[in-house]
Specification:
- Helix 12 (411-439) runs parallel beside helix 17 and helix 15 (465-480) runs antiparallel to helix 17 (496-521).
- This protein has a 6-stranded antiparallel beta sheet, sandwiched between helices. A 3-stranded antiparallel beta sheet has the order 3-7-4.
- The protein is of the alpha+beta class.
- The chain has helices at residues 21-41, 67-81, 123-136, 146-149, 165-169, 192-197, 217-230, 234-246, 294-305, 321-327, 389-402, 411-439, 441-447, 453-460, 465-480, 490-494, 496-521; strands at 85-92, 95-103, 117-118, 252-253, 266-270, 273-277, 290-292, 342-345, 351-358, 363-369, 374-380.
- A hairpin with a 2-residue loop joins strand 1 (85-92) and strand 2 (95-103).
- 50% of the residues are buried.
């Protein structure tokens, strides 16, 4: 998610006595407002329904890119975006074609194929597979009501009793961020048991099975279901039932940001420069807790590509071929979202089965191309998804699908850096304008003397818009991003330059607003509003 380039506003010529810092500051506010509108217009639309099409006709398929081609593409992407560190794996069939680490972790260590990195929402694919294993073992059925196996799952809505296991996994349960603030609760929840208990006061936004809506607690409930039905902690269950059969010895799952290893911590990017940043408080096990490596993800991808075979071609026993097909098959209500995977198409029309992940300081992406048998996984230690793992994964998919690398991989990163520069220069320009506006507040107040209060209030109102926007931006973004829950601290992580510019402009507007209100409220006297001995007609310079 990168910030669109700001529009260039027109600046009509005004008489000198009608200009001044106040008008310039309002212009800066207007420009930031335009940037905000452009930013919000970039919010993703609702997921479109994509049918699970039959395989393409058999053929040779695209050739597998060489490791050198992958390395060159990744380095070009990193140079264009400022991506500090990434790990990549490319598979074909049961072969791990290439594993690479690029750049460094926040503490300066080189990223390698064995560096543990946050998988974020890619974790949902692991939770879904753990549930499918229990189903194939006869411990549950995907169409069973969740409460049949997890009596502790209760909500303040009787319809919740009808939520099925499948509806948790394809996100059609009816649970929604609009009814339950799943992210902005921070670290109030510390265990999967507590995450299920938190839902007792929540209601549903839709009848179960009728509407798709991305909601992390779906997968936290599913992970708790695995704990209860499997009879052991979720982390132990994944390690023994999923990771171990694939030889994913460096992979684990964690509860909160406090459990992230040093190498899995990440950055925010400003002006193309990566700045180390701590992950804000949050709980994510089941929905986003997996920490893995590129080497381990190679085994994960080959198992899905070959219907349960590991890198050595041997059966892993994870799932039957029908089980893997079920993982990648959506329901009518879920559209393009299957069980922890999403379906799409490449530019050439080839099928893609994928899932992305994003926390505030790291991103990830996995993609399977069933028609050619390729798999790609990318982990990046920046929270900017457009210039992070998803953008790089898209470029690698294009390389595999077309046989040629994109002409300008990561071009959006360079564009974002220029946008950051414009915004920060704008923020710097508002500082002297604010100072001048405060110093000339007396002249402005004198010019308003004797005028209707509503007219004065109308002139002051624009100065309140940037502060109000800064305070409510997370709510507006959450509404536009398909009604997702968004905490106040997320915009500074996602759009740091825009947020900094908005805050600086807001502080300047508050200073000018406070100075003008103070002058208006001051008692009448020489040179004060209401002094009959002076007026704006006497040659006093005023500001708009």
């Amino acid at each position: 998610m990168t910030l669109p380039a700001p529009a260039r506003p027109a600046h009509p010529v005004r008489p000198a006595h009608r200009g001044g810092p106040a008008r310039a500051l309002r212009g800066a506010s207007a420009l930031l407002g335009a940037c905000a509108l452009l930013l919000l217009s970039a919010a993703p639309s609702a997921a479109a329904a994509v049918a699970f099409a039959p395989p393409s006709p058999a053929g040779a398929g695209p050739a597998t890119p060489s490791p050198e081609a992958v390395d060159a593409l990744v380095e070009d992407y990193r140079e264009a975006t400022g991506l500090p560190g990434a790990a990549v794996v490319l598979t074909h069939g049961t072969d791990i074609v290439h594993v690479g680490g690029y750049g460094t972790t926040p503490d300066g260590a080189p990223v390698t194929g064995g560096t543990p990195m946050a998988m974020a929402s890619v974790s949902k694919s692991f939770t879904a597979l753990a549930v499918l294993r229990l189903a194939e073992a006869g411990e549950l059925d995907l169409d069973d009501p969740v409460r049949e196996h997890l009596p502790e799952f209760t909500m303040a809505d009787p319809r919740a009793e009808r939520i099925t296991v499948r509806q948790l996994l394809d996100q059609t349960s009816g649970m929604s961020d609009a009814e339950f603030a799943s992210y902005s609760r921070g670290r109030e929840t510390l265990t999967l048991r507590e995450s299920v208990a938190d839902l007792r006061g929540a209601r549903l936004a839709a009848e179960p099975g009728t509407r798709w809506e991305y909601h992390n607690p779906n997968y936290q409930v599913a992970a708790r279901l695995v704990e209860v039905v499997g009879g052991r902690p979720f982390a132990d269950h994944l390690r023994e039932e999923v990771f171990a059969p694939l030889g994913m010895d460096a992979t684990t799952t964690i509860d909160t940001d406090l459990d992230l290893p040093a190498g899995a911590r990440g950055h925010i990017v400003v002006l193309g420069l990566a700045l180390p940043a701590d992950e804000p408080p949050g709980f994510g096990n089941g929905s986003g807790g997996v920490v893995s490596t590129a080497e381990d993800m190679g085994a994960w991808l080959t198992a899905h590509t070959e219907g349960g075979r590991g890198p050595d071609g041997a059966e892993t026993g994870l799932l039957s071929p029908e089980g893997f097909e079920a993982l990648h098959t959506p329901s009518e209500a879920s559209g393009s979202y299957a069980l922890g995977w999403s379906l799409g198409r490449t530019a050439s029309g080839a099928r893609v089965v994928e899932h992305s992940g994003q926390i505030m300081t790291a991103t990830s992406h996995q993609a399977l191309l069933p028609d050619s048998g390729h798999g790609i996984a990318v982990m990046a230690n920046t929270g900017t998804s457009g210039a992070g793992a998803s953008g790089l994964a898209d470029a690698l998919v294009e390389l595999v699908d077309s046989g040629a690398a994109p002409e300008r991989p990561g071009a959006e990163g360079a564009w974002a850096a220029r946008t950051d520069a414009v915004l920060l220069l704008l923020a710097a320009a508002t500082v002297p304008l604010s100072v001048r506006g405060v110093r000339r507040a007396g002249g402005w107040a004198l010019a308003r003397s004797g005028r209707a209060r509503w007219a004065t209030a109308a002139r002051l109102l624009p100065y309140a818009l940037p502060p109000v926007s800064a305070v409510t931006l997370h709510e507006v973004l959450g509404w536009l991003y398909q009604g997702r829950d968004m905490a106040w601290f997320q915009p500074p992580y996602l759009f740091p330059a825009f947020w900094a510019a908005l805050v600086v402009c807001s502080l300047g507007c508050c200073a000018v607003l406070a100075a003008r209100l103070a002058r208006l409220a001051a008692p009448a006297g020489p040179g004060r509003p209401g002094d009959p001995g002076r007026s704006s007609a006497a040659g006093v310079r005023t500001d708009g």
